[in-house]
Amino acid sequence: MKILVTGSNGQLGSELRRLFAERTADDCLFIDIGELDITDPVAVRSFFHEHRPEVCINCAAYTAVDKAESEPDLARKVNVTGVEVLAKNCEDSGASLVHISTDFVFNGEADKPYSTDHPVSPVSVYGLTKAEGENRALSTCSRTWLVRTSWVYSAFGGNFVKTMIRLGKERSEINVVNDQVGSPTWAKDLARAILTIIDQREVTKYGIYHFSDKGAIT
Question: Structure pTM?
Fold first, then answer.
C-alpha cells in the first residue's frame, strides 16, 4: 500500500516515520513543507497524479496556539485551505484521508470527556481554524478518518513536557496555570492508533474518532 504522510518532520510525523520503517509491506512517502506546499492546489494535484497514494495521513498543521491570534490568515491557510486541497485530491483520486485534529475545537468547559458527536465550540483562532479544517475534510472527502487528540508530546519538536523540563533546569520555581485538565498523549501511541485504523480499513468506518492516552492531569 502506498501511503503519503504530510508534516512528516513534526512530532506525529516523526513517530510514523519510525513505525513505518519497521514495516516492509508499505511504500511510504514522507513530505514536509520543503517538499510540498499543501496549500498549493496545482502542486498537490501534480504530486497525487505522479505518486498516486492510497492513503494520505495529514499531520501538517499550524499549531502555534497563541501566535495564531496575531497570524489568523496563516493559520487558516494551513489548517483550512491546506486540508481542503488534500481532501479534494484524495476524493478525486480514490485515496483515503486520515486527518489529525485537536481538542481545541471544543471550549473546554465540559466536566467529562467529549464525545465524537459533541458540537464544536472553539474559542481561539487556532481552534476555529482546526474546526473549519475538520468540516472541509469531512465534506470534501467521503473517505475521511478524522482523529482528534490532545496534549501531544514526544522526543521530537517542541511540546509542553519538554518546555517544563527545560524551565525546571533553568529556574528554581515555575508558575503555570492550574485550571486546565487534559490527557497527555504520547505521539508514538497516537501513531500506533493511526496504523491500526489503516490496517483495519476494511472494517473501520469513516468518520470522527477521539484518541488520547489514559488518564487526565491538570
Answer: 0.92
**Residue 179 pLDDT:** 60
- Superfamily of the domain at 2-210: NAD(P)-binding Rossmann-like Domain (3.40.50.720)
Domain regions of the chain by residue span: 2-210
- Measure the CA–CA gap between 184 and 88, rounded to whole angstroms: 32
User: Residue 134 and residue 112: Cα distance in Å, rounded?
Assistant: 22
User: How far from the centroid of its chain's Cα atoms is residue 198's Cα?
Assistant: 15
> Which pLDDT does position 213 carry in this prediction?
82
Per-residue cell: 135: 468540516
Residue pair 170/123 in contact (Cβ under 8 Å)? The answer is no
Is residue 116 packed enough to be buried (19+ CB in 10 Å), middle (13-18) or exposed (0-12)?
exposed
In the DSSP assignment, the letter for residue 217 is B
Please, are residues 2 and 29 in contact by the beta-carbon 8 Å criterion?
Answer: yes
Angle, helices 41-51 vs 82-93, to 10°: value is 30
Q: Is 126 a catalytic residue?
A: yes
CA–CA distance, 206 with 119 (Å, rounded to integer):
18
The residue from 62, 126, 153, 209 that is catalytic is 126
Mean pLDDT by 10 residues, the chain (218 residues): 96 96 89 96 98 98 96 98 99 99 95 94 98 99 98 76 67 67 87 97 95 77
